[in-house]
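Incident review: delayed structure delivery

Summary: a single-chain prediction request sat in the queue longer than the usual turnaround. Root cause was a stuck worker, restarted by the on-call engineer. No data loss occurred. The affected request and its eventual output are reproduced below so the record is complete for anyone auditing the incident later.

Affected input:
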Amino acid sequence: MSTLNTADTALLRGRIDAPGLATRLAQIPLIWKLLSVAIFALAWEMAGRSGFNFSFPTFSATVAAFWEMLVDGSMGMAYLRTMEPLAIGLAFSLIVGVTMGVAMGLREDVEWLALPIFIVMQAAPMAALIPLVTFIYGISLTAKVIAVVMLAMPVITINSYKAVRNVPGSLVSMCHSFMGNRRQQIWYVVMPAASPMMFAGLRLGVAEGFSGVVLAELLITPTGIGDLITFHRSVANFAHMYATIASIVLFAVIAVGLLQWVETLLFRPEKRSVK
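Output delivered after worker restart:
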């Protein structure tokens, strides 16, 4: 005779239908990210050991070279020199780019005057113009800062312009209905509504800035990270060269990832609630 009542039967069914350990682990995004990195490292190690090219080191040799440069201080010194033109260029691009983008979004005369310039800068292969900057400013810090600005500013400016232009007209009309003046319309309606897209443009601009500073250090004068890459390539120390390249890629990914986290924290509450 069965002694289970209705509640015990439902509890037993719930335990049977409960997801297993593998299913619960598969629902954790970090597990998939770590698995992706592990597969990439394994493929790199196998490709390096296959000997298809003498200049392609194994993953383990690259990690060892990275640790060696980290311990002897050469990696840290290179990053300190690279960060100087990058920080100056990004700060200038942020201030001027956002100001120009907002001005183009608010005033048609500024839009007609400046928008074609930034569209050309965004569409043109700006890396091809870096040697021309060298002829004008020489192998100086100014030339590297301009290289960063040439790649970062168009992205920041165009996104700021689009953000202001895409502010819903109903919000502006609501401000008018409450007798808001032009200054209040800009500071309390337009800027808050445009901030998420402007911040996304800043994130893309930072990614372009990393490309600009590495190109500048490779094409203008070998300093910082560019100097490490050039030196180790010239002496056929390929594990150190790959370690340097991988480090700047990883550094850029971490920086852009942090900006994306800040963007989600400030402007994307709907994404914060998604588990």
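Verification: The radius of gyration is 26 Å.
Action items: add queue-age alerting; document worker restart procedure.
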